[in-house]
Specification:
heterodimer; A: 505 residues; mainly alpha; 72% helix; B: 111 residues; two-stranded antiparallel sheet; 3 helices
């Protein structure tokens, strides 16, 4: 019961924060979609960091370490520390600049302008939004399973069918409603404020859980001595090629539509500086505690007994919950659960705002003309589309979802595979419209082919030449983009002058 | 606009290929930082700890400790970028050429 009260209080706090941020809402589409491009360094940093960290940063990192050892940090966190910041600098800052100069609010607007083609938008829109839906599902399902885990036997009469636990569908519905509430009233600004708060919460809760678990296990040294040494190494857990190819996955940050929109909320270019430097440091603060908890879980025993904390056959995704639940108090358990929900919601909110913006700007206004809708109507169109997407996602959580977590890596791979498109659009003058179309079509086809070959994501050990499938997808995109661009007519001088102004004045 | 060594330069994209400081000064720093990141890329593949289960300070598996240190070096690298490779004049240039918020405009050309 205690965890439920703490979670409830946390959600109530978020609503209060949303009401406060609403006092700063300036009205109009520019404020709703990109917070009037006014966010400072700290809020931008927290918003972007919170958006890139999902439930996987806490629950998944612990689970993955429990299963395949501490190499989890190197293959996911340290690679992301380097590659994400590279994307923020090489992609985020230029896109912010182009967005400010030309008034872009979505990726598709940029690509349409750069390639002088409305068609590229109609091809990219379904791909970008389609790849986000598994991401939403992971968030909602993650929230449902975490809350269900910590509330088992809490409500034996009310929820008898779920052994007294809050049903996952109810949690998904409540989480969706809270996120919808705060983005409805303030859009990108509310999402950024909420993300700032939630990022601080999930970092703090991870550290708190880590500290208390270490104390309960007799100190960090004692906990590490008890852990399984086979999980302290990569040998037998992953190949070197696998470890290397994970470095391509964080390239997805260059193509995430919600990150694009976050970039546009920055007040100035120098606002990005803190993000570049702070991101790797926060990766350490978030991931190291969870990776060590996962490592300790491989050998942890209940104090004063010979009983393992993690029973044989327990699901890896339950490891964090079990370690916190058995080695700390219900209050801490509730706080850590709130931290996990914070990580989930801090991604969902930006994603919801992004799909709403994209639908409004890239489809509706493109179809019906720029003067057809007022600013207020555009905001309501965005809200309406967000609600539709949330309802669809919620309904998907109710059907068969066993493989949904495996879809995560495929969703990230899809975005990473398309990242050469944005790098080329910004840095390579010779990139052509035909090259862009060919690269998108062929990369999508290869993605689909490999996805089917992996039994729709069910085969989690599916590799190509010992490397992750993203390697083949990315190579397809690069080769197609370069070859077709070189074989087709270069962009017009007008386009080049707009995106590559003369160097010397 | 920036005057560097008597040459008037206009900040532009991509700025990794442009300058926001005197060329002789910034090029050497920029090259060193680029080499630093290339070295980090190579050093990420710490195959030499692959089978080593030693615990650093009795707590951190050696490969994990190594990657924590590696990640801190990444932060240092990005700090150096903000100091020596930053397009300082970009804000001014952007605010000069910024358009008011616009609505999407249908393009005349199609694929």
């Amino acid at each position: 019961m205690t965890p439920v009260i703490i979670i409830g209080a946390y959600l109530a706090l978020l609503i209060v924060l949303a009401l406060l941020s609403n006092r700063y809402f300036r009205g109009g589409a520019a404020d709703y979609f990109v917070a009037s491009r006014s966010l400072g360094p700290f809020v931008l940093f927290m918003a972007v960091y919170g958006t890139t960290m999902t439930a996987f940063a806490m629950v998944g990192s612990t689970a993955e370490t429990y299963e395949i050892g501490v190499g989890t940090f190197g293959k996911l966190a340290s690679w992301s520390a380097l590659v994400h910041s590279a994307c923020f600098f090489l992609i985020g800052v230029p896109l912010w600049s182009l967005g400010k100069r030309h008034g872009y609010m979505t990726q598709v607007e940029f690509f349409r302008d750069r390639f002088q083609s409305p068609g590229i938008g109609y091809v990219l829109f379904p791909l970008l939004v389609g790849l986000l839906i598994p991401y939403f599902l992971i968030g909602l399902l993650g929230a449902g399973s975490v809350v269900s885990g910590v509330t088992t036997n809490a409500f034996p009469e009310l929820f008898a069918a779920t052994r007294g636990a809050v049903p996952p569908a109810l949690t998904s519905a409540v989480i969706s409603a809270v996120v919808l509430f705060y983005i409805f009233i303030g859009g990108a600004r509310s999402a950024a404020w909420a993300n700032t708060f939630q990022t601080l919460v999930f970092i703090a809760m991870g550290l708190l859980a880590f500290w208390l678990i270490a104390v309960k296990l007799g100190g960090m040294e004692s906990a590490s001595q008890l852990a399984n040494p086979a999980k302290a190494v990569r040998e037998g857990n992953m190949t070197e090629l696998q470890f290397f190819s994970y470095g391509l996955i964080p390239l997805s940050a260059a193509m995430f539509p919600h990150l694009f929109q976050n970039f546009l909320t920055a007040r100035s270019a120098k606002t990005f500086k803190l993000l570049l430097v702070g991101h790797p440091i926060c990766m350490i603060l978030t991931w190291v505690p969870c990776v060590l908890i996962g490592f300790w879980a491989t050998g942890a025993i209940m104090p004063g007994t010979e009983t393992a904390v993690i029973p044989a056959g327990a699901s890896a995704n339950a490891v964090l919950g079990l370690m916190v639940g058995k080695l700390t108090t219900p209050v801490i358990s509730g706080l850590v659960t709130a931290g996990i929900l914070a990580a989930i919601m801090s991604s969902l909110d930006s994603q919801f705002v992004a799909v709403g913006t994209m639908f409004t700007r890239d489809i509706v206004v493109q179809q019906y003309g720029r003067d057809r809708f007022s600013d207020t109507q555009m905001v309501w169109l965005a809200r309406g589309f967000i609600v539709c997407i949330v309802i669809i996602t919620f309904l998907l959580t109710l059907i068969e979802t066993r493989q949904i977590f495996a879809l995560g890596v495929w969703c990230f791979s899809g975005y990473a595979a398309l990242s050469p498109l944005i790098f080329a659009a910004i840095y390579w003058k010779r990139t052509t419209r035909a090259g862009a179309f060919a690269a998108v079509y062929l990369t999508a086809a290869v993605w689909l082919g490999l996805f089917v070959a992996s039994d729709y994501g069910a085969d989690r050990k599916f590799l190509i030449g010992g490397m992750l499938p993203v390697t083949a997808m990315l190579a397809t995109c690069v080769i197609t983009l370069v070859v077709v661009s070189l074989l087709t007519k270069p962009p017009s001088d007008e386009t080049l002058a707009k995106f590559f102004p003369p160097k010397t004045a | 606009m920036i005057v560097a060594g008597g040459v008037t330069r206009q900040p532009q994209l991509p700025w990794l290929l442009s300058d926001s400081a005197p060329v002789s000064y910034s090029m050497s720093k920029r090259t060193l930082i680029l080499l630093f990141f290339l070295l980090l890329l190579v050093l990420h593949q710490d195959f030499w700890w692959r089978s080593d289960a030693t615990l650093v300070l009795g707590i951190f598996p050696v490969s994990l400790a190594y990657h924590i240190g590696w990640t801190l070096l990444v932060a240092v690298g990005w700090f150096l970028v903000t100091k020596f490779c930053w397009p300082h004049a970009l804000d001014e240039e952007v605010s000069k050429g910024a358009n008011p918020e616009r609505k999407p405009q249908p393009h005349s050309s199609s694929r």
